[in-house]
Amino acid sequence: MIHHVGMAELKIATEEHALRTFGLGSCVGLALYDEVAHIAGLAHIMLPASPNEAPQHVAKYVNTAVPRLASLMIERGAAKRRIRAKLAGGAQMFATLSGVDLMRVGPRNVEATLEALRSLGVPLVASDVGGSYGRTITLECLTGKLWIRSVQHGEYGI
């Protein structure tokens, strides 16, 4: 069964289930998994940092989504030392006619996510970030395999 993760959402699933999110442009899709416990989580994160300490939508911001996703997985039985991360998205979707970055939202999301993972001690084992195209990702909970699909590059796993 595939569980869909909407924009600014995060979900946890186990065993034979999968998690999917659509339309990653400048947003990042963070996949965490424990391949021994077969517990996985996926977040569709929109922005690097919350403007306040207790945002209404925790999954919208890197600084609140990353620790919350890890915490939920640990509550379900994942071991923190076994959690691994994969990352996709973070494209630079907006540029001026001269090719100069307009807001750098995608790259800033990637940078913030990498820093949040470092602070939690969660290793990043694979990523597919950047570029100027959108992605759809599917995380297999049993294996930790992350499938990435885009119009430009077809479908491939990391």
CATH class: Alpha Beta
Biggest sheet strand order reads 1-3-8-9-10
Order of SSEs, N→C?
EEEEEHEHEEEE
Structural class: alpha+beta
Summed up, the domain count is 1
Instruction: Label the CATH architecture.
Output: 2-Layer Sandwich
* Low-pLDDT windows of residues: none
Q: What's the overall geometry? A: globular
> Major beta sheet, specifics?
5 strands, mixed
Mean pLDDT: 93
Instruction: Tell me the distance between the termini.
Output: 20 Å
Using brief descriptors, characterize the structure shown:
single chain, 158 residues, 60s Ribosomal Protein L30, Chain: A, five-stranded mixed β-sheet, 20% helix, globular
Structure report:
The structure is a single chain. The chain is an alpha+beta fold and 158 residues long. It has helices at 62-76, 105-120; strands at residues 2-4, 10-14, 18-24, 28-34, 39-45, 84-89, 124-129, 135-140, 146-150, 154-157. It has a single domain, classed as 60s Ribosomal Protein L30, Chain: A. The chain starts with a strand and ends with a strand.
